[in-house]
Amino acid sequence: MRIGELARRSGVSERSLRYYETQGLLNAERTPGGQRQYGEWAVDRVIRVQALYAAGLNSKKIAQLLPCMRDTDGGPSEAATEQLVVELASERDRINRLITDLIRSRDVLDEVITTASVGVS
């Protein structure tokens, strides 16, 4: 598929897809005319990259992580290093702290909403 189709199917802009390519997160074959061509696998790859960005990882960390993720056939990758596992565990801990903070903030808002709702018709 061409870059426009990948952008449409993944919900990611063409500009972002080109950026992913420069960062080593996505690879494209080139037609004789120089146009990018992606396989079906690229949709899942882009969705994974988006999820990792949303988790707060940077492109360098994502580039290290992608080869370690399970392949589409479900088989484990053997590319993980001990250091990468330690770094990813640290990222997970950071995310867990953020979740705890968000839950605390939501609880405070719930309390304020409940208090403010008394006497409001």
Automatic annotation (TrEMBL):
Xref: InterPro entries: DNA-bd_dom_put_sf, MerR-type_HTH_dom, MerR_fam
Q: Where is the signal peptide?
A: none
Domain of life, per lineage: Bacteria
Keyword annotations for this protein? DNA-binding
Residues in domain HTH merR-type?
1-68
- Listed Pfam families: MerR_1
**SMART domains per UniProt:** HTH_MERR
User: GO molecular-function annotation terms?
Assistant: DNA binding; DNA-binding transcription factor activity
The protein depicted here goes by the name: MerR family transcriptional regulator
Q: Which organism is it from?
A: Streptomyces triculaminicus
